[in-house]
């Protein structure tokens, strides 16, 4: 077992207080957006095995089968296939979508062929992997996920009474729902700056007025955008998406092509080991409209909330089911009784409440306080887990 030393990513949209509170640290006064736990070379976790801290991806590269197990290496390759995060949004982060595996490989190769440095701000593909993801709320968590049905989006825009939105409302009336959404998003992202500035200004004023009149109405959530990103056309793009509020323990799975944005709150996020993001707004970062339109899926519909279900043969463990094998997220709510964790696959354990204790087969004990995590190599032997009033998330793979 390795206690992990993890990196906080200080993106501008991060909360100033949420991660420090979770980690038991004093706020720095700067935004702290994401705590990364894993082996992504962009911000790898570190572990000390008696010779000083070493990056987790370097430890794995030195002995892939010893760290990940032969079955995981055969199935997913010689790298940890998932990345675990705690995400703390103080203001909205970008409306975005992620590519399929084939799209990521093609995009990464194309940008490499053009000689674009991998850390260049105008680069769209940082690696050759896809980025499906699962988020699980640790408290109330607001976001946008997937396209509304065009008729619903048109009604929402119409309700604002903004003349500048009339052309978009007309586009949403197309018979083919996918084409209606595509043409409307294209119109939002490509309108000239002067037109966009006026449309966004009038829309923001109408959103603020409607939210003040009805704080529980459909426009209230969008005031996070008007105040966090004034003047950004992502406000109008966001009105095309479903507004979602997760309660603690509720989750969402986001596959390739699903447009989404996280607006406010703290969640556990588990994803494939990638940093590929195509953006549509609410960001000062690079927006590549043609590439985004290749990636986004324009199928409308409300997102399905996930709740955990008990794992057969594993008392105390609840699983959030997802349709891929590269990552698997489950949760233990500990009540003083000891649980057993299978050791055939690599895994990261994250404590989000209370104090948890891990006991290896050789008797080694590792305690995890709130916000702490551990890497368990695939030894083939079980690890015992216990704690009182503690919550532990388990990130691993399905073999």
Instruction: Give the class from helix and strand content and strand pairing.
Output: alpha+beta
Tell me the β content: 25-35%
Low-confidence stretches: none
First and last CA, distance: 21 Å
The shape is: globular
- Mean pLDDT equals 95
Number of separate strands:
23
- Give a short account of the largest sheet: 8 strands, antiparallel
Radius of gyration: 22 Å
Helix content class: 25-40%
**SS field, number of helical segments:** 12
Architecture overview:
- This protein is of the alpha+beta class.
- It is built from twelve helices and 23 strands.
- Strand 15 and strand 16 form a beta hairpin.
- It starts with a strand and ends with a strand.
SSE layout and pairings?
Elements: E1 2-3, E2 7-9, H1 18-23, E3 34-38, E4 46-48, E5 53-55, H2 56-62, H3 64-68, H4 70-76, E6 82-89, E7 95-97, H5 101-113, E8 133-137, E9 141-147, H6 150-158, H7 166-171, H8 177-190, H9 193-213, H10 223-228, H11 234-238, E10 241-246, E11 251-254, E12 260-272, E13 278-281, H12 289-295, E14 309-310, E15 317-320, E16 328-335, E17 339-341, E18 347-353, E19 356-359, E20 365-368, E21 373-376, E22 383-386, E23 388-396
Antiparallel strand pairs: 1-21, 2-3, 3-6, 4-5, 6-12, 7-13, 8-11, 8-12, 9-10, 9-12, 14-15, 15-16, 16-23, 17-22, 18-21, 18-23, 19-20, 19-22
């Amino acid at each position: 077992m390795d206690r992990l030393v993890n990196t906080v990513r200080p993106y501008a949209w991060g909360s100033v207080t949420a991660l420090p509170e979770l980690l038991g640290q004093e706020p720095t006064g700067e935004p702290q957006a994401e705590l990364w736990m894993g082996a992504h070379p962009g911000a790898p976790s570190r572990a000390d095995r008696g010779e000083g801290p070493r990056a987790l991806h370097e430890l794995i590269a030195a002995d892939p089968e010893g760290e990940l197990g032969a079955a995981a290496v055969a199935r997913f390759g010689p790298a940890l296939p998932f990345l675990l995060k705690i995400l703390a949004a103080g203001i909205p982060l970008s409306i975005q979508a992620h590519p399929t595996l084939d799209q990521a490989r093609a995009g990464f190769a194309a940008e490499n062929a053009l000689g674009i440095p991998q850390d260049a701000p105008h680069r769209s593909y940082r690696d050759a992997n896809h980025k499906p993801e699962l988020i699980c709320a640790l408290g109330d968590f607001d976001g946008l996920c997937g396209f509304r049905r065009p008729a619903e989006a048109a009604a929402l825009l119409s309700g604002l009474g903004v003349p500048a939105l009339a052309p978009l409302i007309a586009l949403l009336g197309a018979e083919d729902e996918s084409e209606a959404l595509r043409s409307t998003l294209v119109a939002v992202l490509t309108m000239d700056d002067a037109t966009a500035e006026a449309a966004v200004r009038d829309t923001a004023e109408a959103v603020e007025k409607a939210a003040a009149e009805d704080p529980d109405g459909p426009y209230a959530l969008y005031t996070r955008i008007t105040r966090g990103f004034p003047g950004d056309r992502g406000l109008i793009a966001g009105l095309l998406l479903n507004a979602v509020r997760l309660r603690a323990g509720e989750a969402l799975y986001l596959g390739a092509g699903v447009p989404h944005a996280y607006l406010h709150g703290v969640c556990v996020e588990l994803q494939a080991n990638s940093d590929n993001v195509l953006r549509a707004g609410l960001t000062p970062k690079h927006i590549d409209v043609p590439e985004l339109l290749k990636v986004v899926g324009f199928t409308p519909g409300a997102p399905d909330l996930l709740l955990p279900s008990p794992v057969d043969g594993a008392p105390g463990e609840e699983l959030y089911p997802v349709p891929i094998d590269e990552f698997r997220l489950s949760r233990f709510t500990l009540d003083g009784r000891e649980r057993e964790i299978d050791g055939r696959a690599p895994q990261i354990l994250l404590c989000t409440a209370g104090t948890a204790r891990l006991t290896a087969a050789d008797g080694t004990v590792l305690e995890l306080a709130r916000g702490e995590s551990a890497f368990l190599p695939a030894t083939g032997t079980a690890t015992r887990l216990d704690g009182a009033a503690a919550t532990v998330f388990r990130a691993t793979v399905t073999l």
